[in-house]
Amino acid sequence: MPGTKGAQREAVFGKVQVISGESGCRFPFCTSLLIDDELKALIDPGAGYQRLNELKHEVPIDIVINTHYHYDHIAYNHLFESSRIVINEKEAQCFRNRSSIGSLIGMEEVYGRAWVEGWLERIADPGAEQSPFSPQNNHNWWLSTSRVDGEYKWGDVMDFGKTVMHVIGAPGHSAGFSCMYFPGQGIVYVADLDLTDFGPWYGGSDGDIDLFISSCETIAGVDAELFITGHEKGILSRKDFRAGLKVFLDVIGRRDEKILSLLSSPLSLEDLVGLGPIYGKRYHEDAWVYMWEFIMVKKHVRRMVVRGEVIEENGRFVAAR
Hints:
single chain; 321 residues; alpha+beta; Metallo-beta-lactamase, Chain A; 2 domains; 12 helices; 35% helix; globular
């Protein structure tokens, strides 16, 4: 493996190079992949401004591929003004009409349509006040969702010359979330199936707990030797990824247990969310963290109602006895 240079390419697999994100690939940064082939592609330009700006001057990128629309995976699309920008067909509307982001990520569900319009005004302003724990008002949102030049579908096979990439649909994290499999190199980029200690994230209106679990099972079955996460864990063997995946998914059950323990007496959804069972109350000063908490807790409660573990009584929820 080469030493660090320029955009800090930490590993190379044929024509595929891993670019480590800033801050140890912790949110709001992510791992990016460079395909330095006849057709030069960059997957998920979220590694950080400095690293990707260096890369831009080293390699003429033909196409930028986003696995999904979340900030940390699209943040620096705008650096590549001469490149084609593509994203999955299910989320391409986010780059054609930014209001769609408000619908998918949860703003409209939690705060209403007018709040989305205010958000659009804030991200259009480079000097907007920033939120404490999320990139909700970052101007990169505005810059990097300004255009889309093409869409891909789940099941597509992209040919870059000597490198072939299979697009695998993995909904649950987002509606169009995609993993990128390189059979010739024996690697798969799993992006936000990332095995972080926080656990699975399905905090958008388009997130789904059961689809997330199913997608993890699908990706665990991919015939790859190495699994590359978008955050923190990095490059894992198949054995380590599968072992880590069990621990990762077990977080969902622990969240259920915590929520059930808080529902020993009836609570409204708002009161339950206010206790911060997933993120913690202290992070609720950030409107987006509260939004994610609200949506994730709501998904857990509704799922447990269906399973008979929680009962809804007059708009309040209580653990079944």
